[in-house]
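Methods, example record. To illustrate the input and output format used throughout this study, we show the complete record for TonB-dependent receptor. The sequence lines were provided to the predictor; the line carrying structure tokens was produced by it.
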Amino acid sequence: MSFHVPGRAGRILPLTAIVFTLGATAALPETARATDGYFLNGAGAKAKGAGGVEIAMPQDALAISVNPAAATVVGHRLDIGMELFVPDRGARISGNGAGLDGTYSGNGANPFVLPEAGYVRPLSDSVAVGITINGNGGMNTHYKANPFANFGASGPAGVNLRQIMISPVVAVKLAEGHSLGVSPVLVLQSFKLHGAQPFAGFSQDPAQVSNNGTDWTTGVGVRIGYLGSIGKNVRVGAFYQSKVWSGRFKNYGGLFAQNGSFDIPASWGVGASVSPTADLTLGADYKRIEYSGVQAVGNTLAALFEGVPFGADNGPGFGWRDVDVWKVGAVYKATSALTLRAGYGRSDNPVPRSQTLLNILAPGVVRGHYTLGATVNLSQDAEVTGYVMRAPRQTVRGSGSIPASFGGGEADVHLAETAVGLSFGLSL
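The corresponding predicted structure is encoded as:
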């Protein structure tokens, strides 16, 4: 399927490339994405090179997956990218009377290849449409040496959570320099847990806790955005994404609260950018992610010792708290053919020190990430963008993390991340 682009003789828009990218994303056997908890630090190669800043600093078609209003300003374009992502995750258990003590590596699966794609098309001077296909986030661990073996677990341990978002967008310019956008958010997500058999003894449905293969579910939510200009050199923006209401993971109905429910948390944010010169743009974003609004993620392990089993309404979860995320980034046009980027992002740690035991399986604890990026223009209409990201190792040291009934002691978890990415952009 393709569309002829009016006014560009011979130019055919390859929408089949986006469809292919979606299929490739869904077919990947394992993915792991995390920086802002388990959310991505940005969407699109240009934003990722500038610290993830894009609420009010849109640079390519993927920006509409964060702020739908950006569709009115990025022009008619297609962007397709790929990231090589390498997380370093693990745990250390000490002082445990049940024999769990040891240092454990969760890096049995590495690296990961993560595709994304976005397309935007203006329909008139005031209306634009688009679509993006990318990952919201995810988490993967694979412990060849099972940290729970002395509890009776067998085989390796780990989780694999994947969340793929498909976001059609409509944006309208309400007045000169002021736009609103709206996007239904369609989600395909999968989950797999293995090597956690001992937790079945604390579940309302022991058969649906661990080692049940990969389960899939779908969900829907909505995202709205605003983008405005103040004078010629300043932009402001904001977005709100509702909770994504998802179907239940039936194969893990004895693990997640509410019989396997695993919604995606609501989030919102504001941003600003300023261009002090024609060649330099500086931007900053603030985002809030409401992890505590999803029982499977936000409920603490304490529920178990209050008599509520895994899988029940208000049952135990991973104990994640809401996080604030700050990002700053710079874009500098060095020459007519070369644009340089740099940025930094800082997120709260969602995992309390008392909740590290279960989070051995999902240690989304990195806080800061540094980025560099560049775009090279291949022609008037084509460009290649690359970036690198490094999130230094962050360790959360347990405090009261292993209950006395599980042998006591402490579980420390850590995570570091490295990513490199490349995208191809085409102005149509």
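Annotations derived from this record:
The first strand starts at residue 3 and ends at 4.
Residues 15-27 form the longest helix (13 residues).
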